[in-house]
């Protein structure tokens, strides 16, 4: 999807196309880094070291080592089944909910081992929020959806204000301000997903994880959410899993390319990170031929 | 058909053969088959018909036999040795008290067990599987064995409550508990996992998720299940006989003191009397019982249709 | 919580203990409570077993188990001359169960096949709930039905060549009533099993030119057989455990016969009569309640386990 359907004035950068002289050129447009993330310090929020996940003894993903930087949008891309979702769910300990899931390696979050003995997954999730692939609003009113998180945290004072702030930050306030008491199930898919984002923002997390947040949405809603992500980048660190390469190219600062490999001697197909670099580099001048094959569309 | 159209004898024969075979296959079935099929269908309808006829006969028989005494008098008269005078007042009161006690016991226990089994229990642990197997087996234990349990453990034995309403309530509660647990589990299971994940991802604890998201969404299903299970308890006679619901002396409403009776027990007593008049009020009592059950079941179904969450 | 300002220089370390667990005693207490609720079910089974076991053991202290299981005369009330051969009442139960099955299996299976293979959607919508109504009718009503409708009917239409007509209390009428009572069990579970048979199997048979009857009898029923057998086993278990119908309509004297016209006493009826009678506790006669109860419990438990295993098998195959 190379066309921008939104007439949003925030998107002032014109996409430019760069490429090596001897290559067919990238298939996607890449945003130039005018206000580059490089200018901020590449301070790691997450440090992943040889991270692997096994479900019931079968490895799903292996030897993942890279850093996720603060204030960046980091995209995890790659074909289906190579463990991107598995990995992102490790970052807020949602994999704990799957019986038989075993995490190897270490994930350091702001200097603390995320899987340390004394770490409580509940506390982790208050700092690291998640938006899911299919919007999952609660069967309650819009207001109660947003208020749920703060209420559970004990922040019952100024609830109205918290709700409004969250909805504004999610660019949803104007659309729902008169309908706060209506059931969330009555909203469109795109609105529901922004509601889920607002819900996440209401607890004021540090990091927002997004697992293919737009794959169930139409192009217009997708555009709105991508714009939202660029806004949110100012205050939150975002990690996004996406199948849509163009989306990764549009919004992310760093990109990790995953692939799936057949382990020698074993019958399993395990996911691995092939390359992790600035998005611009990944899409215009990738180091690994597998990355290049994927981003130029030679393989699916 | 003209033979000139085909190049060779072989082709002509092949085409003729194919035509003939197709005609045989697509033509009507052999008569024998049709007759057998019709007879079979008739037998099936007969089977269904017998079942339905029995249902109708049972209800009609009760209505016809009891029609003289069907009226509000029946509901408000006290039990008595004289069939002309006898009524269901104490029996109805007794049933109301019994069922009240059953609900007070079975709702917390049953819903609690259902929540534990669906939300907390790890299937791989042997003790959780033991609990599940237990519940399945208990659901098939004859009701009179629950009566024996009540007699030995609740009326006498450790609890030693005596032949009182509370003993009857507890016995019946144990009887319907497996059904309530099953209904609760189904209602809880119907809540999609995405809701739980959404709640947990916001940093809510497991119990907060259950209390604020899962339970509210599953309450209509739970209530329906409880009402249906409890309505079965209303019709149970055998266990109550064993735990002492036979006396029908003056019944002062009380959970822990005094004798009591219940609707089906009263009907049973009337059925066992030789006089014709008792047969009449027994039949009338049955009609009352059926109406009560019909009302409760209809209410439960209406509740479910009205409040069920559509995901 | 990490600070959120965007200047590069600010350190964003976590406040100490940010990720540590907050002690939540309320949650732990609730968890304990919920576990207790679930454990009640195990406690109930234990209680049933204990309440049955102790008097049963004391019973078998006095009466040899072989006399109990193989004796044919049951008269515990005769004091000195008491006989404890349980076969008399076991056969009474089996007698009634036989006639029940003769009614329930054809009607139940027939209804199941009809619902699964022949009935249109509209008919199913009405018929299925109606059969469920049958399951909801209290057993005391069935007892009344057996005594005051079925028995006189049988007496009226009893053909002479079958011998003597049924008495006021007879096994046949109780059997028929129980049969009707268990039709929904067979119909519902069998229909479930038949519906679980994949449509592809049926379509394959139809495509080969089979008639509806053939498909039903030769394809669907054999494929659903374990579920059908499970339903029958469950129905038998239910029939054996049924009390009120036999208490009201079958009679109260132990009688070792399989004849439908005679009055018999079933195990459940014996328990019912004896436990509500004036018998001193801690006598052998009182203990018979528990001995017979144990036998009943074991029989139904075994059948239930068999049925569950069969149901699991048919579910595994198709789901």
Explain what this protein looks like in three dimensions:
The complex is a heterotrimer of chains A (300), B (311) and C (319). Chain A has 300 residues and is of the alpha/beta class. Chain A has one domain (42-295): Rossmann fold (3-Layer(aba) Sandwich), CATH 3.40.50. Chain A has helices at 84-91, 121-127, 142-153, 159-169, 173-176, 189-201, 219-232, 245-251, 279-284, 289-295, and strands at residues 44-55, 58-64, 67-69, 73-77, 101-109, 112-113, 128-131, 207-211, 237-241, 254-262, 269-278. In chain A, the strands form two sheets. A six-stranded mixed sheet of chain A has the order 7-8-9-4-10-11, sandwiched between helices. In chain A, strands 1, 2, 3, 5 and 6 form a five-stranded antiparallel sheet that branches. Chain B has 311 residues and is mostly helical. Chain B has two domains: 9-69; 72-307, MetI-like (MetI-like fold), CATH 1.10.3720.10. Chain B has helices at 9-26, 31-66, 72-76, 89-120, 126-138, 143-155, 165-189, 193-201, 206-234, 238-242, 263-271, 276-307. With 319 residues, chain C is mainly α. Chain C has a single domain, classed as MetI-like fold (Orthogonal Bundle). Chain C contains twelve helices and two strands, in the order ααββαααααααααα. Chain C has helices at 25-62, 65-70, 87-118, 121-136, 139-157, 171-195, 199-207, 212-223, 225-241, 244-249, 267-275, 284-318, and strands at residues 74-75, 83-84. In chain C, a hairpin with a 7-residue loop joins β1 (74-75) and β2. In chain C, α1 (25-62) packs across α12, α5 crosses α6 (171-195) and α11 (267-275) crosses α12 (284-318). Chain C is flat, with a radius of gyration of 28 Å. Chain C starts with 24 loop residues before the first helix and ends with a helix. Chains B and C meet through α2, α4, α5, α6 and α7 of B and α1, α3, α4, α5 and α6 of C.
């Amino acid at each position: 999807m190379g066309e921008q359907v939104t007439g949003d004035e925030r998107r002032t950068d014109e996409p430019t196309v760069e490429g090596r002289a001897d290559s067919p050129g990238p298939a996607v447009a890449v945003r130039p880094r005018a206000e580059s993330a490089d200018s901020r310090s590449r301070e790691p929020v997450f440090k992943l070291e040889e991270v692997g996940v096994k479900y019931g003894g079968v490895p799903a993903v292996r030897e993942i080592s890279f850093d996720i930087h603060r204030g960046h949008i980091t995209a995890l891309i790659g074909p289906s089944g190579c463990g991107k979702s598995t990995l992102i769910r490790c970052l807020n300990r949602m994999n704990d909910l799957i019986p038989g899931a075993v995490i190897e390696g270490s994930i350091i979050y702001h200097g603390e081992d995320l899987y340390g003995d004394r770490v409580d997954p509940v506390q982790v999730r208050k700092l690291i929020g998640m938006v899911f692939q299919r919007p999952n609003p609660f069967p309650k009113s819009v207001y109660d959806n947003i208020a749920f998180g703060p209420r559970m945290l004990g922040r019952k004072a100024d609830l109205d204000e918290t709700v409004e702030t969250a909805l504004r930050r999610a660019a949803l306030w104007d659309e729902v301000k008169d309908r706060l008491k209506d059931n969330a199930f009555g909203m469109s898919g795109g609105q529901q997903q922004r509601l889920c984002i607002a819900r996440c923002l209401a607890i004021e997390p540090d990091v927002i994880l997004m697992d293919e947040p737009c794959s169930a949405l139409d192009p217009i809603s997708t555009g709105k959410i991508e714009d939202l992500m660029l806004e949110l980048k100012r205050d939150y660190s975002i990690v996004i899993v996406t199948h849509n390469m163009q989306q990764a190219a549009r919004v992310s600062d760093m990109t990790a390319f995953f692939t799936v490999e057949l382990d020698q001697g074993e019958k399993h197909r395990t996911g691995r990170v092939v390359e992790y670099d600035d998005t611009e580099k990944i899409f215009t001048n990738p180091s690994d031929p597998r990355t290049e094959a994927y981003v130029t569309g030679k393989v699916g | 058909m003209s033979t000139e159209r085909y190049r060779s004898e072989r082709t002509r024969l092949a085409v003729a053969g194919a035509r003939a075979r197709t005609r045989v296959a697509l033509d009507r079935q052999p008569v024998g088959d049709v007759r057998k099929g019709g007879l079979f269908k008739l037998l099936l309808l007969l089977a269904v018909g017998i079942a339905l006829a029995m249902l109708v006969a049972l209800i009609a028989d009760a209505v016809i036999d009891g029609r003289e005494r069907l009226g509000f008098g029946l509901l408000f008269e006290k039990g008595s040795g004289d069939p002309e005078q006898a009524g269901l007042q104490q029996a109805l009161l007794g049933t109301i008290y019994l069922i009240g006690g059953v609900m007070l016991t079975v709702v917390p226990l049953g819903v609690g067990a259902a929540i534990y089994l669906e939300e907390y229990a790890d299937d791989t642990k042997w003790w959780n599987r033991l609990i599940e197997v237990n519940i399945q087996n208990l659901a098939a234990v004859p009701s009179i064995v629950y009566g024996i349990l009540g007699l030995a453990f609740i009326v006498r034995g450790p609890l030693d409550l005596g032949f009182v309403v509370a003993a009857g309530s507890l016995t019946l509660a144990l009887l319907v508990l497996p059904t309530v647990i099953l209904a609760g589990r189904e209602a809880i299971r119907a809540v999609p996992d995405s809701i739980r994940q959404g709640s947990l991802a916001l940093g809510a604890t497991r119990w907060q998720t259950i209390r604020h998201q899962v339970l509210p969404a599953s309450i209509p299903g739970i209530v329906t299940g409880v009402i249906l299970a409890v309505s079965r308890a209303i019709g149970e006679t055998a266990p109550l006989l064993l735990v002492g619901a036979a006396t029908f002396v003056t019944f002062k409403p009380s959970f822990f003191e005094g004798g009591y009776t219940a609707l089906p027990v009263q009907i049973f007593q009337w059925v066992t009397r030789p006089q014709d008049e008792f047969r009449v009020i027994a039949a009338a009592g049955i009609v009352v019982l059926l109406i009560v059950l019909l009302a409760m079941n209809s209410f439960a179904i209406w509740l479910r249709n009205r409040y069920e969450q559509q995901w | 919580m990490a600070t959120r300002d965007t200047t590069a220089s600010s350190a964003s370390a976590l406040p100490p203990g940010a990720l540590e667990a907050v002690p939540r005693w309320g949650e732990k207490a609730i968890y304990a409570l919920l576990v207790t609720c679930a454990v009640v079910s195990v406690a109930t089974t234990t209680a049933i077993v204990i309440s049955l076991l102790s008097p049963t053991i004391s019973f078998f202290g006095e009466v040899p188990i072989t006399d109990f299981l193989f004796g044919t005369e049951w008269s515990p009330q005769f004091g000195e001359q008491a006989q404890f051969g349980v076969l008399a009442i076991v056969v009474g139960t089996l007698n009634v169960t036989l006639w029940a099955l003769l009614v329930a299996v054809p009607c139940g299976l027939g209804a199941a096949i009809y619902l699964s293979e022949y009935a249109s959607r509209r008919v199913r919508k009405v018929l299925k709930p109606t059969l469920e109504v049958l399951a909801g009718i209290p057993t005391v009503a069935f007892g009344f039905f057996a005594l005051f409708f079925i028995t006189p009917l049988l007496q009226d239409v009893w053909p002479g060549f079958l011998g003597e007509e049924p008495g006021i209390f007879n096994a046949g009428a109780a059997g028929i009533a129980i049969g009707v009572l268990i039709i929904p069990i067979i119909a519902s579970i069998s229909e479930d099993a038949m519906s679980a048979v994949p449509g592809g199997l049926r379509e394959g048979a139809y495509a080969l030119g089979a008639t509806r009857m053939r498909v039903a009898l030769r394809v669907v029923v054999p494929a659903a057989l374990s579920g059908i057998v499970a339903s029958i086993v469950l129905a038998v278990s239910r029939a054996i455990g049924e009390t009120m119908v036999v208490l009201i309509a079958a009679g109260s004297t132990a009688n070792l016969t399989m004849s439908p016209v005679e009055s018999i006493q079933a195990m459940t009826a014996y328990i019912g009569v004896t436990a509500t009678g004036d018998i001193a506790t801690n006598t052998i006669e009182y203990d018979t309640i528990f001995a017979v109860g144990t036998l009943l419990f074991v029989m139904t438990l075994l059948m239930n386990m068999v049925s569950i295993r069969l149901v699991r098998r048919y579910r595994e195959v198709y789901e």
